[in-house]
Amino acid sequence: MADCLFCGIAAGEIPAARVSETDRTVAFRDVNPQAPIHVLVIPRDHYPDLAALTAGDGGLLTELATQAHEVARAQGIADTGYRVVFNTGSDGGQTVHHVHAHVLGGRPMGWPPG
Ligand code: 5GP
Ligand code: ZN
Question: pLDDT 10s digit of each residue in the chain, 114 long?
Fold first, then answer.
């Protein structure tokens, strides 16, 4: 989609520190990390949020979850534990409207989240 930051990253038009990719997903480091490991996993196709993704292609959500775990394993945090977050809507803190899974780890996570 035109003027979408993460579509630009998926297309390679906007630089990002990629850690892995598949046919349908791209994983790259968050530019403002909130934990020692903070990676975003996105579909190459544009879906604005989790609701649109689940309505449009539930199988792609499964691929995002699989890739989130693969990132955690490759980054060495699968055994110590990690958190996967889909911020959704304004109260959820979503600022980029191309669905993305945050993979966070490398330190203990607080609960409840802020
Ligand atoms: P949200 O707030 O929508 O859940 O998450 C958006 C995330 O994208 C934020 O954690 C933010 O730091 C990250 N972000 C915003 N712009 C860029 C960018 O240009 N490159 C990268 N790698 N991450 C970005
Ligand atoms: Zn997009």
Answer: 889 999 999 999 999 999 999 999 999 999 999 999 999 999 999 999 999 999 999 999 999 999 999 999 999 999 999 999 999 999 999 999 999 999 999 999 999 998
Q: Residue ranges of the alpha helices (H) in the chain?
A: 5-10, 50-56, 58-74
Sign of the torsion formed by the C-alpha atoms of 31, 37, 42 and 48: negative
Q: Are 101 and 41 in contact (CB under 8 A)?
A: yes
Residue for token pair 């609960």: 111
β-pair type (18-21, 25-29): antiparallel
Q: Best of 3, 6, 32 to mutate for ligand 1, by most ligand atoms within 8 A of CB?
A: 32
Task: Assess whether the C-beta atom of 90 lies below 6 angstroms from ligand 1.
Answer: no
